[in-house]
Amino acid sequence: MNTSILHPDIQQFIIQNTGADITKLALQKNPFPEVEWVFILNQIEARSKAKEKLPTWFNAQNIIYPSKISVEQTSSEKTAAYKAGLISGETLIDLTGGFGVDDYYFSKKFKSITHCEINEELSSIVSHNFKQLEVENCTFFSGDSIHFLEETTQKFDWIYIDPSRRNDAKGKVFMLKDCLPNVPELLDFYFEKADSVLIKTAPLLDISAGLSELKNVKNIHVIALENEVKELLFEIHKNYSGEITLKTINILKEKTETFEFILGEESFAIYDLPKQYLYEPNSAIMKSGGFDEISSAFKIDKLHKHSHLYTSEALIDFPGRKFEVKKVISYGKNDMKNELANQQANITTRNFPETVENIRKKWKIKNGGNLYCFFTTDVKDNKIVLICTKII
């Protein structure tokens, strides 16, 4: 770890240039020739990325950042705080510690945290940063976490793992067995060291594929931040064999939207034509596949089996976007010409044969404005357009 970056003058320079154009900055002469210019530029770029994602690190002094990619790939503080609210106990071991954002939040819930990281430099960076952040209940191991578990006699309350895809797995369907560590293969070994395991995966993983590889799953959490799915969590308990609860969480600036259901429990959607209000589920619900469950739980009608849009006569509080339907037209030349051609509108397609790009080009519809148009298929298999205004 290069501690020369901590010189007060260099730190001041990094702070002053946070948010600056790195390409332009790179053309300047290095004002600190004793430290590699690329290293200083990386600190500036990584700190800029941390401003929104990692405000605790951004606002602390003498923080050292790893590569920009490590900052991009790490959990945000908001998702890390959510995870820490799920579990607690005396001891937790993180087998894939990374930049330590999750462990910072776990340290508030556990008496003792063990941070394992195969990259020696990254391990020492996190150790340094935790001193700056006044985290005192975390120990660090640099090396292969499997070797650490094999050697230790300690039993932990929780094992936390964020497996990464192997390079040779690119282009393949995303499976946990194609990641390091190979969790499905190692699960029995992990259960010798802890009774509970929390696995974080990328949102790319298909939930049913994850379940086909894992056992003893109790809860699955789909976490979205500002309506973008960021991660899936599989909560596993030794010898558990009951029902699986799927929980969706969409963390927004003003509120957090949640919805949950029991996986595999029979639910029936009700179908009908568009009514006064239209609902579009948030991205966490879309990822969960709980489409019939939404109709059943909120007692709202679905427009079509494959459209995943919902409608009701009376407005309800809903985990997603809400719209008032101003007009419903058929997708045909006359209606489109009279109502939308050469207009400005926000366009969404759901279960519709044409792309947004094609629709815009075909009917000369400019992007933006206050109209929200949903091109979709109704319960009678007709292609329709719902012209709406958004409800804030």
From TrEMBL:
<feature type="domain" description="THUMP-like">
    <location>
        <begin position="320"/>
        <end position="390"/>
    </location>
</feature>
<protein>
    <submittedName>
        <fullName>Class I SAM-dependent methyltransferase</fullName>
    </submittedName>
</protein>
<dbReference type="Pfam" id="PF18096">
    <property type="entry name" value="Thump_like"/>
</dbReference>
<keyword id="KW-0808">Transferase</keyword>
<dbReference type="InterPro" id="IPR029063">
    <property type="entry name" value="SAM-dependent_MTases_sf"/>
</dbReference>
<dbReference type="GO" id="GO:0008168">
    <property type="term" value="F:methyltransferase activity"/>
</dbReference>
<dbReference type="InterPro" id="IPR041497">
    <property type="entry name" value="Thump-like"/>
</dbReference>
<dbReference type="InterPro" id="IPR054168">
    <property type="entry name" value="PG_1098_Fer"/>
</dbReference>
<feature type="domain" description="PG-1098 ferredoxin-like">
    <location>
        <begin position="277"/>
        <end position="319"/>
    </location>
</feature>
<keyword id="KW-0489">Methyltransferase</keyword>
<dbReference type="GO" id="GO:0032259">
    <property type="term" value="P:methylation"/>
</dbReference>
<dbReference type="Pfam" id="PF22013">
    <property type="entry name" value="PG_1098_Fer"/>
</dbReference>
